[in-house]
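Workshop exercise sheet. Pairs work together: one partner reads the sequence aloud, the other fills in the structure field after running the prediction. Swap roles for the next sheet.
Pair: D.N. / O.F.
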Amino acid sequence: MFKYIEEEGRILHPDTKLMLKFAKGDASAFEQILKKYKKLVINIAYRFIQDRIEAEDIAQEVFLRVYESAKRYKPKAKFSTWIYKITLNVCLNKLRSKKHLQTISLNKPKEIPDPTYIHPFINLEKKELNQLIKEAIDSLPINQRIAVILQKYQGLSYREISKIMGCSTSAVDSLLQRAKQNLKRKLTPFFKK
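Structure field:
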C-alpha cells in the first residue's frame, strides 16, 4: 500500500506529491513520474492505436502535456486518474484526426510463447476466437469500447473509469452492460456452431 503524505492539512498520494514538487521546480520529480508511468501510458495508447511507434509518440505528447501543465496542476483526483484522462484524450484526438475510429484494436502486445506444446488446430481455434472477440469489441460504439478497455484490459474500477470518462459510475455500469449485451449478440452465433 502507498504511504500518503500530509501537506497543508491534506493527505497526498506520493505521485501527487511528486507532481507538486515538479511544479515547484524539482526536475527529478518529473523524471520519477516519467519513469513510473511511461510504460503504462504507452500500453494504453497501444490498445487504442495498435501501432507501437504511434503509441510512443502519444506517450511523448502526454508527458509534454503533463510537463506544460505543472504550474496549473491541482490535485483534485488521484494522479493516475489524471494521467489516464490525458492519455485517453490524446488517443481520441489522434484517432479523430486519422478518422479510423473503427480500427481500434485490443490485441495484447506480443507475449513470450508458451513452451508447452499445444496442437496446431487448438492454437488456430484460439487465434480465430481472439480475432472474433477483437472484431466484436472494435465494432462497439466508442464510449462502450473505452469503458471495456479501461475495465477489462486496464483493470480500473467503475469509479476510476467514471472520473476518466467524465460521467457517473452508474453511466459506466450502463455502458458496460450495453457493451456486454452487444458482444453477446455479436458472438452468440459463433458459439452455437
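Discussion prompt: Strands lie at 5-7, 10-12. What would you look at next?
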